[in-house]
Design brief:
Chain B: GO terms for molecular function: CP2 mannose-ethanolamine phosphotransferase activity. The complex is a heterodimer of chains A (about 220) and B (about 900). By secondary structure, chain A is mainly α. Chain A is about 70% helix and about 0% strand.
Chain lengths: ~220, ~900
């Protein structure tokens, strides 16, 4: 049972990584002069769209937590709307945090906002898919000893690694190498992406490695 | 400058752009102009108090040649060359706020001197332009007036010289040059293009008039001036000059003289090379010099045999080219060679510093123990034997190094007593380290038998603190991170605030659900996860803590206070963001528009006044709550006095007198404030002493410490420029927020609180507008309330004004920890942590700089940072002494 679960986790994660790789190559078929660095904003939009789509599809296909008891249509719609509001809220709050960290307030506002969008895609969207718009559950997952399944465990790891990646991505900005990727917010978005991918890769392996020690309250 | 432009374009002149080497401060630049050598960074410190110049210089050569030299202008010259001038009038340059009188003081002598004509050299050093730059920057409207004034002075001198030339046989030479440039902000000291490039114009009737392209003048070195002047005056070139003759100047002379001048210059340079480089014969410059000397000989022979021939001219120009190439290589290799490092002294210093650091690190577990005792075991005979052995080895090394070294060595130059003292210190430290190490190893064996407490996981906050410190230390190895160090600190402080907010959320949303188990308490960082609690005593400490914490924090704090706790990290973040946009510092983004510039521009005086008044009000409201009534009144009057002082020197205005033009130096107002500062500090000290006598009165001590803190705040308010007053207000606001809503409810331990204070102190150092660049030091703070330059108060005030952020946070730390009664050893823990956290970056930086000493930016980036670090270390030492004194009073009480 557990091994099959881990396998499913691994496959879904591989699909997420595949969607990010696709977001690098597919737009160049349709758009001229597409490259990650020069048309960075386009890539951000495409990547965010792809990852969100894959997450939604996976959520519908796999349904890791089967707890939908009352599945009336109106309930589903309100749930979906709530999710959208949560996503927007997270985008805006990330934007505020970036400004507090020193991002320019007025100029480059679009860039900063798109960075907030992609970071929300990597963190908030999986949370919404897995846990739903339920703040209490979120707080539970992101506190110590609060996870109750391997899905939540991997969610915790990918989210934290995305944040850490974005945080580390800010480090090379003051260096005077004058590379194109040092421009705000490219290094941060790339850092977040690498962090997300690393989290996706590492979390199934880590769970597999520690499967003997891991005991969840539900199992 | 119409006349100067006319001279440059049409007249008989040569113009260059002379490149000054950093540090671009007055004294080293005068040295470079007159000696042709490259003064080092220590001269920045000596800039304020210049000792007499001992090296060979153009002035000294002229004096020995019996020339009469007259000097008017910056006093630094008189101090550098005492008894060299036949007549002088020095103007002190320390009234940066004055820009008319300093120049009138020079110009008033001019007519008389020009008429007299009984001199050979006249040196004028005008200060006004520099002062205008310091006051209001390079875009000030005052600059234009000053430049036209300087132009008229130049015209006066030039016409007078021309009229005189008819009487004397020799032509005159007028040299117009600047010692350093001016950065975008009007300051100088660093190595940006604007600061390094200076004009150099030589005007003489001996030059040909040639209307050439003067839009792009040739770039030369500032050190070349000394050699050129010496040759022009017919004097020997100063011994240590690394400059080469400005060849266009002598181009009009006959070939024989040109060659002669170049020969003189190359001989001097090659002699200097021989003195400094052991393998000088292999140097390409020296080889070129030998070859050109040989060719020169051939040319002379040819010249003596036959005159005016094509062959002669061709050979001559070949020799010329050869000489110029030799000069270039020689000058280049000399300017890289002269920067020699005194490795032996550096090694000795580094070893002592590293030994102290190792000792501190080794005693971490011991010192953070609840008793906070720092024992230094020094008894066993084995160690004394080791001690004597090490001393013997060190003295042997010292003798060998000092007898074999060719170059001068600072440590060898010390007297034997001092050197011996250093060696005793080094070996004693080594022995202490060895004994502590053995103790740790032996003690480790015994303690390992005890059951180690299982719950020794670190909280996120501790992890962040450790990683942040390590990251900051590592970042000091990269020049960009040193230039932009403020970004590192802002980043770390922001992350700290986010971590704190996460901690508050977890405490208030999850703490309600279940009673956390014993292990979780430690994890949540409520108590120390420091090693101190780990060795055996952790569990009973927890029990004890639980005893007096029985109502859990989430139950005590309800309603509005809970929300304040949750919101305060975000408030602090918002404050930091506002402060960050107040002063843009660093290098890459320093030119960005910031609020500070907007406020200081003369159009926004009203806004600045309102802001300053509000900040002073906030300061009063936040500070008065802890003071006694006497010091409350003193504080109010003192803050009023601060505003009056700023109004008197014209940076802010009163609402009832919007356009007052009478600008004074504000001496009375500033001294008025000083009286209150001293009064508050005195009351604080009195309270502290009283609390020591009356042992039970604990509250009195807290009040005394807060009064000392508020005295320092008042002094900082006086010294800060008006646009920086919000920094002070926000600093107090953040301190209050942190104390009330974060440190007290969350119960951080002393080590964490100390590190947070240190981080905020560092961030506020940069919020003030400081950077790791000499140019941003606000020396005007040293002249508040002083009539003339008095060394000791000026240096102390400048140091306090620069390091006000760290000092205020440290004094708040002392107050906070002694007002908290929960732990008896908190203050000594904090002192130890403060010393450790300050000394780790410094000692690592010393090692880094030593290994990077051939880095391209060693003089422009790393050396100023080293000066800052040294100064910071002194301040830290003072803070630690204060800590220990407070701790002693506590010990005598109990």
């Amino acid at each position: 049972m557990k091994d099959t679960d881990i396998k499913r986790l691994l496959y879904t994660h591989l699909l997420c990584i595949f969607s990010i790789i696709l977001s690098v190559f597919i737009p160049s078929l349709f758009l001229e002069n597409f490259s990650i660095l020069e048309t960075h904003l386009t890539w951000l939009c495409v990547c965010s769209g792809f990852v969100t789509a894959v997450n939604l599809v996976l959520y519908l296909a796999v349904k890791p937590n089967t707890s939908s008891k009352r599945s009336s249509l109106s309930h589903k719609v309100t749930r979906f709307l709530k999710c959208c509001i949560y996503f927007l809220m997270s985008c805006f709050s990330f934007h505020v945090i970036f400004v507090l960290y020193g991002a320019p307030l007025i100029e480059l506002a679009l860039e900063t906002f798109l960075f907030a969008v992609i970071l929300s895609t990597f963190t908030t969207v999986p949370c919404l898919c897995l846990l739903g718009p339920n703040l209490k559950a979120w707080l539970r997952v992101f506190s110590r000893n609060g996870v109750t399944s391997i899905w939540e465990n991997s969610l915790q790891m990918t989210t934290i690694s995305s944040f850490v990646g974005a945080w580390l991505g800010a480090l090379p900005i003051p260096l005077d190498w004058e590379r194109p990727w040092q421009v705000w917010p490219i290094s941060c978005t790339l850092g977040a992406t690498f962090g997300y991918v690393a989290g996706l890769v590492v979390s199934p392996l880590w769970i597999y490695w520690n499967r003997k020690q891991l005991t969840y309250k539900n199992n | 400058m119409p006349y100067t432009t006319y001279l440059v374009e049409k007249g008989a002149s040569h113009s260059f752009v002379a490149e000054a080497k950093p540090p671009t401060v007055t004294m080293p630049r005068i040295k470079a102009l007159m000696t042709g050598s490259l003064p080092g960074f220590v001269d920045v410190v000596r800039n304020l108090n210049s000792p007499a110049l001992l090296e060979d210089s153009v002035i000294r050569q002229a004096k020995t040649a019996g020339k009469r030299i007259i000097f008017y202008g910056d006093e630094t010259w008189v101090k550098l060359f005492p008894k060299h001038f036949a007549e002088y009038d020095g103007t002190t340059s320390f009234f940066v706020s004055d820009y008319t009188e300093v120049d009138n003081n020079v110009t008033r002598h001019l007519d008389k001197v020009l008429k007299r004509g009984d001199w050979d050299m006249l040196i004028l050093h005008y200060l006004g332009l520099d002062h205008i730059g310091h006051i209001s920057g390079p875009n000030s409207p005052l600059i234009g007036h000053k430049l036209s004034e300087m132009d008229s002075v130049l015209m006066k001198i030039h016409t007078s010289l021309q009229s005189k030339e008819r009487e004397t046989p020799l032509p005159n030479l007028l040299v117009l040059c600047g010692d350093h440039g001016m950065s975008e902000t009007g300051s100088h000291g660093a190595s940006s293009m604007e600061e390094v490039n200076t004009p150099l114009i030589l005007i003489s009737s001996a030059f040909e008039r040639k209307p050439g392209d003067i839009r792009h003048p040739k770039h030369v070195q500032q050190t070349d001036v000394a050699a050129t002047l010496a040759i022009a005056l017919g004097l020997p070139i100063p011994k240590d000059s690394v400059g080469s003759l400005l060849f266009p100047v002598v181009e009009g002379r006959p070939m024989r003289e040109q060659l002669r001048f170049l020969h003189l210059n190359t001989v001097q340079l090659s002699k200097l090379l021989q003195e400094n480089v052991p393998s000088y014969e292999k140097d390409p410059g020296f080889e070129q010099f030998k070859m050109s000397e040989r060719l020169h000989g051939n040319w002379i022979r040819l010249y003596l045999e036959e005159k005016h021939s094509e062959v002669l001219f061709n050979l001559g120009s070949k020799v010329l080219r050869q000489y110029l190439a030799a000069l270039k290589t020689l000058s280049l290799s000399l300017s890289t060679q002269v920067a020699q490092y005194d490795m032996y002294s550096m090694m000795v210093g580094t070893v002592v510093v590293l030994e102290v650091l190792t000792l501190l690190l080794l005693s971490v577990p011991q010192a953070l123990h609840r008793k906070a005792e720092l024992e230094v075991p020094l008894s066993s005979p084995g160690f004394s034997l080791l001690f004597y052995l090490v001393i013997l080895v060190l003295s042997a090394v010292h003798v060998i190094v000092c007898t074999s070294a060719e170059s001068s060595c600072y440590f060898c130059g010390l007297s034997w007593l001092a050197a011996g003292g250093v060696m005793v210190l080094a070996s004693a430290l080594l022995c202490v380290i060895v004994s502590v190490l053995t103790n740790v190893l032996v003690g480790g064996n015994t303690s390992r038998k005890n059951p180690v407490h299982p719950s020794s996981r670190w909280s996120e906050l501790d992890l962040l603190i450790l990683l942040g410190t390590a990251g900051h230390v590592l970042s000091l190895g990269a020049s960009s991170f040193v230039e932009e160090e403020h970004q590192t600190w802002y980043f770390l402080v922001n992350t700290l605030c986010l971590a704190l907010s996460q901690e508050t959320y977890r405490n208030y949303f999850l703490g309600d659900d279940s009673e956390p188990p014993c292990g979780l308490h430690v994890e949540q960082g409520l108590d120390g996860a420091t090693p101190a609690w780990q060795d055996g005593s952790a569990c009973d400490a927890l029990e004890r803590d639980k005893g007096h914490r029985s109502p859990s924090p989430s139950q005590v704090l309800r309603g509005h206070k809970k929300w304040m706790v949750l919101a305060s990290p975000w408030l602090i973040l918002a404050c930091c963001r506002l402060l960050r946009s107040l002063n843009q510092t660093g290098v890459q983004w320093a030119h960005r528009p910031d609020l500070g510039h907007w406020l200081t521009s003369s159009d926004h005086k009203a806004e600045l006044s309102v802001l300053a008044a509000i900040s002073l009000l906030v300061v009063f409201v936040l500070v008065q709550r802890g003071c006694s009534s006497v010091s409350k009144a003193a504080l109010a009057l003192g803050l009023l006095g601060v505003y009056c002082y700023r109004a008197a020197i014209g940076s802010v205005q009163f609402p009832w007198r919007p356009d007052s033009q009478d600008i004074s130096k504000g001496i009375i107002e500033a001294r008025f404030v000083y009286i209150f500062v001293l009064g508050i500090l005195f009351t604080g000290t009195k309270d502290l002493l009283k609390s020591q006598v009356i042992a039970a009165d604990f509250k009195l001590k807290t009040v005394g410490l807060w009064e000392i803190h508020s005295g320092l705040v008042l002094l900082a308010a006086l010294l800060f420029r008006p646009h920086n007053l919000p920094v002070l207000a926000f600093s107090l606001l953040i301190q209050t927020l942190m104390t009330k809503f974060i440190w007290k409810p969350l119960r951080h331990d002393a080590a964490e609180i100390t590190v947070m204070h240190y981080w905020f102190g560092q961030a506020f150092f940069y919020f003030q507008g400081n950077s790791n660049n000499i140019a941003t030091v606000d020396i005007s703070a040293g002249f508040v309330g002083l009539d003339t330059y008095v060394e000791i108060p000026a240096v102390l005030l400048t140091a306090f004004g620069t390091y006000a952020g760290p000092v205020l946070w440290a004094s708040h730390l002392v107050y906070f920890l002694s007002s908290e009664t929960r732990s008896s050893s908190a203050l000594s823990h904090a002192c130890f942590c403060y010393a450790l956290i300050c000394s780790i970056p410094v000692s690592t930086y010393i090692v880094l700089v030593t290994s990077l000493r051939y880095h391209l930016f060693i003089w422009s980036v790393f050396s100023p940072k080293l000066l800052y670090e040294g100064m910071h270390l002194l301040i830290t030492a003072a803070v630690c002494v204060f800590f220990t004194a407070m701790d002693q009073t506590r010990l005598t009480q109990s």
